[in-house]
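Reviewers asked in the last cycle whether our approach scales beyond single polypeptides. To address this, we selected a multi-component target totalling 667 residues and predicted its structure end to end. The input consisted of the following lines:
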Amino acid sequence: MQQYIIRRILLNIFVLFLVATMVFAALRIDSDHVVNTKAQGCFTDVTGDIEQCKAVARADLGLDASILRQYWDYMTDLLQGDLGNAFSNKEPVLDQILDRAPPSIELGLAQIVVALFVALPVGIISAIRQDQWIDYILRFFTIFFLGIPVFVVAVFVILITSRYFGQDDAFPFVSDWLGPHGSGWVNIWENPIQNLKLVTGAALVGGMATGAIIMRFLRSQMLEVMRQDYVRTAWAKGLRERVVIIRHALKNALIPVLTVIGLLLGSVISGNVILETIYNIEGVGFYVTFSALQFDYPVMQGIVLVVALLLVFINLLVDIAYGWLDPRIRYS
Amino acid sequence: MAQEQAVPSAAIPAAAEYPLRKRPSPWQNVLKFIRKKPLGALGFFLIFFLFAMTLGTPKASFGVPELPNSPLGFELGRPYMAPYDEGENFKNAAGRLNVHAAPTTDHWLGTDGSGRDNWARIIWGARRSLFVGIWALALATAVGVSIGVISGYFRGWLDTGVQRIMDALQSFPPLLTLILILTIRPFTSEPSLVVAAFALGFVGIPQVQRIVRGVVLQTREQQYIDAARVIGATDARTMVYYILPNIMASIIVVFSTGLGVVILAEAALAFLVPQAVPPEGASWGLMLDQAENDGLATHPWAGIASAMAIALAVLGFNLAGDALRDVLDPRLRLG
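The resulting structure, written as structure tokens, was:
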């Protein structure tokens, strides 16, 4: 096991190198686009020539060197922990990412926690009470929340809380907890209550949708596991229902759930752009989407690398947890 | 032993005394399904309705399946269900556009900000959502399941290598990958639904294969796989005839969840990056985007209509997928 973990960590370094190369290559396939966009802003009547504008823009963005030279510079900077400066405001990308990562990670984790609070009870109950009314009702509402686009839910929640639970109404704390906040980010160590107020609404709205996905995988696997011989043995031994379901069935049904949680963590941290926009949380998802629309190469490269760094270790943990949940899965 | 032989053959009843149970007719099966799985039946009904919405008179011109109106390679005319053309504006008595109208008998779901009929646009938009959803998921599932099964079955270095490459692909934020594929010029000179479907499918591959691989890792340690190996099944045969049927439940769940996710993603893409998807033609996502710009609080009808269309489509695929999974589960026979 130790050997396996060490080997995986060494491999992860290789993966990060691969990611850095892939994102570099993907962005350089079509670098004329960003140069043309930048060059459009220059006054052709002053310089007289659009080609000249393009050359200036190209030099300004550091895209004028040969592709190998650019790659060499990029990699050497990377090894020194320098992710370069953003095209748009020329500020170091690393600093901006470090500012924006905590809100995104916190929102992502909170969302997964909410999702688990929805998914675990609903998944278990709808599997052990399959085709009974409680199964139908729980499943219908959970999946319905998956179906409604998250921005519609968020907008309606905000509308209702601000209209009926505003500062002048009976329960202002409702909009305080569920609505968006205009103020900036507050560190969780400085003011935990205010910090939680910022993410609760977004996490609840996002978690309801994510919960349905986890719930479906859990239900499917629970149904499979509940009919295995070892569960029948557990019933036959006379164990209590709680013990049979939680210790014997649930533990074996968690493998797909764990996979999905690992996948969701990755996409939730960097892909929560809609929730972050609506709830005014300055996070990574918001940043990467709008950088991508402006073709801000250093920012895109930086965020992909940081997400990759998180993700390879999440995946390692997931793989280790497979072996813990199901000891038949061994790593040599 | 002797006693068994002593049983007179007359004691065994003739087959005629135990007639075979009559095979239920297909209609009886359908009724039984509706009774046993009401939610699944609702899901299938929603899917049939969604497909019915896309039907229209085929036109003669064959071509690349490029437009949302020609998902199968030939162009379809106006959908039978659509009362109006997708861009038709309506003038009221005063000669102005009848915009943001609430539902009436003429316009069942009201009209949008340009005076177009919401119901008609929902019907036209169904083609686009189905086209993108099904092709993207077909790509993601076909490639993802193949990679996942092979990687999980052989394990060892192959698995490690494949999974690390998938790690790398997965670390690109989905929206970033979509924007990149949709804007890089070698792939597309102008916004195209085929490229959008391809991009959405491509983003799904690492996720599908990761889920499939997880299940395969568990399945390959079961006794029946050992048994298959003992009777001399080759690796390919074991994967196709022993592992694949046993992970079918998970694949159905992946496919039906994924279809919903892709329909939502197309809507979100149109909502966030309207320039990356073809602007012409009705799309649920674009409708929602416009409704959001017009103000959901003051003019809610277009937003409610498109959000409900998306929600019902996603609900239909998920509920039908759950029911299909239950029916195909070998350990649990219906009835």
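The first strand of chain B starts at residue 56 and ends at 62. We regard this as preliminary and will revisit it once experimental data from Aim 1 are available.
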